[in-house]
């Protein structure tokens, strides 16, 4: 009998327990890996490893029956909450759910909305959105122009239906289709001439390029960041031939070095669609023709190809060191193709601080000094667990004004930067984001709470989380706001 009610269980990634022993050699024997994972809190193994070796771990004294019972209780409790032991499944609250409940109109609309929100406008030289009256014929070119399964990426179920980019664009205007390459590997350029002719005789050209799971997937890492094969040549030649604006749409799961297109004036706009799912073609077309105003932001830094040679696969360090540039926007300071958080809109937003505090007093538990725990205040930084975090909240009020002519959604990205004297800290880090829809010509006020313990603290080289005292900087776009933190030694008393 257990004297608590558990409302969750912890499950492994598939085969990860086996990988820990077979590949990573974390333990000498497989039963030791089984015991280590269960004792660490794992309740369910996605794979056969625990089913094979847990009994042996018990017989060897590495694990107790109570350890296994706890894991079993966590798993079964969730099953009980789902009504799996309450009789006829169809009579239970979720027992009636089946395949017919997957492809409902609401769920299809959700897939479309997710695809729309995920599209990022990387470049726009005033060529987008396209016009159905001025761009009556559009050349749709590229190896990803008429794909379906490519759009759902890895680890997806069976799609309800697909709308390819070609099909989506064809709902708006007349299209002329040329793949240019037989697939994304694009190992030949013998079809480029047909693509150039299509672009030359169309009012606008949309190139849908990028990657698929033959290039990037689990167990299939890329060795470079440029477009595969002759794709770059196809983009350049079509852009030269195009009578109207040339739009580059990229499908990929990771960054691509498209510096050539970024600086090519003949490529007037670039969109990144990721792998947009079953409704990806509709979403791409809606953005191209302005039915949807793009508001997505890049979730990763887009590095140049030269970056690859500087980060060996054997070095997973985040922080830079001699000859090593570091990883992610938090530590890397070198050149980028597009930065983390980048994303344009068809309208313009203006951000301003309406209300923001400029200082904060951080109370220290004075009883810690009575016990001579001088590590509380070290290098002008306070250990998080030695202050009252609940009282260290800073409200920011930001006005977001749409000064353009089109309704749009804007995502506020709030970054923090610690005092310059702090070592072992990131250059900056994203601490909050907020998505807000603003009608053209109007303004919305957004409140963001900055919690000092969570958002302004850093982890030092000893793994201790501390709040640095001094001047912290907050950034929202071009806005910068400083907050001064001071230690208060007349603080908390137990």
From TrEMBL:
Gene Ontology molecular-function annotations: alpha-L-arabinofuranosidase activity; xylan 1,4-beta-xylosidase activity
GO biological process: arabinan catabolic process; xylan catabolic process
Recorded GO CC terms: apoplast
Keyword Oxidoreductase: no
This protein's record includes keyword Hydrolase: yes
Record-annotated Fibronectin type III-like domain positions: 410-480
Superkingdom of the source species: Eukaryota
InterPro entries on file: BXL (IPR044993), Fn3-like (IPR026891), GH (IPR017853), Glyco_hydro_3_C (IPR002772), Glyco_hydro_3_C_sf (IPR036881), Glyco_hydro_3_N_sf (IPR036962), Ig-like_fold (IPR013783)
Keywords for the protein's UniProt record, in alphabetical order: Glycosidase, Hydrolase
Name of the protein in its database record: Fibronectin type III-like domain-containing protein
């Amino acid at each position: 009998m257990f004297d608590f009610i558990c409302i969750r269980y912890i499950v492994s990634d598939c085969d990860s327990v086996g990988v820990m022993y077979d590949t990573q050699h974390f333990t000498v024997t497989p039963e030791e890996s089984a015991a280590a994972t269960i004792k660490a809190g794992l309740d369910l193994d996605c794979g056969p490893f625990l089913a094979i070796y847990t009994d042996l771990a018990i017989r060897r004294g590495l694990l107790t029956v109570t350890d296994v019972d706890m894991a079993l209780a966590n798993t079964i409790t969730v099953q009980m909450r789902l009504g799996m032991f309450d009789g006829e499944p169809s009579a239970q609250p979720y027992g009636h759910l089946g395949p017919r409940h997957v492809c409902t109109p609401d769920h299809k609309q959700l897939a479309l909305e997710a695809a729309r929100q995920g599209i990022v406008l990387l470049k726009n030289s005033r060529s987008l959105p396209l016009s159905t009256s001025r761009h009556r014929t559009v050349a749709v070119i590229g190896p990803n122009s008429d794909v379906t399964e490519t759009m759902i990426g890895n680890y997806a179920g069976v799609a309800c239906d697909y709308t390819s980019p070609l099909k989506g664009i064809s709902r708006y205007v007349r299209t002329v289709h040329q793949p240019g390459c037989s697939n994304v590997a694009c190992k030949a350029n013998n079809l480029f001439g047909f693509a150039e002719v299509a672009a030359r005789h169309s009012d606008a050209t949309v190139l849908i390029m990028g990657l698929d799971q033959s290039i990037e997937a689990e167990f299939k890492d890329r060795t470079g960041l440029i477009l595969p094969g002759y794709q770059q040549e196809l983009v350049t030649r079509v852009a030269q031939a195009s009578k109207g604006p040339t739009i580059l749409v990229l499908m990929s799961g990771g960054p691509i070095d498209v510096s050539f297109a970024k600086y090519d004036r003949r490529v007037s706009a670039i969109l990144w669609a990721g792998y947009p799912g079953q409704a990806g073609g509709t979403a791409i077309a809606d953005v191209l023709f302005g039915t949807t105003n793009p508001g997505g932001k890049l979730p990763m830094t887009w590095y140049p190809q030269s970056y690859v040679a500087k980060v060996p696969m054997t070095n997973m360090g985040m922080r830079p060191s001699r000859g090593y540039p570091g990883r992610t926007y938090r530590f890397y300071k070198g050149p980028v193709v597009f930065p983390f958080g980048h994303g344009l809109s068809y309208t313009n937003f203006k951000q301003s601080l309406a209300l923001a505090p400029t200082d904060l007093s951080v109370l220290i538990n004075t009883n810690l000094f009575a016990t001579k725990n001088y590590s509380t205040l070290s290098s002008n930084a306070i250990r998080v667990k030695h202050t009252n975090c609940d009282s260290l909240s800073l409200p920011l009020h930001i006005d977001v004004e749409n000064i353009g002519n089109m309704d749009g959604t804007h995502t506020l990205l709030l970054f923090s930067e610690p005092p310059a004297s702090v070592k072992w800290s990131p250059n900056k880090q994203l601490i909050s984001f907020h998505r807000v829809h603003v009608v053209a010509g109007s303004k919305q006020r957004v409140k963001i709470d900055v919690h000092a313990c969570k958002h302004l603290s850093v982890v030092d080289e000893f793994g201790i989380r501390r709040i640095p005292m001094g001047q912290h900087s907050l950034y929202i776009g071009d806005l910068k706001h400083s907050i001064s933190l001071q230690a208060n030694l007349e603080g908390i008393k137990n």
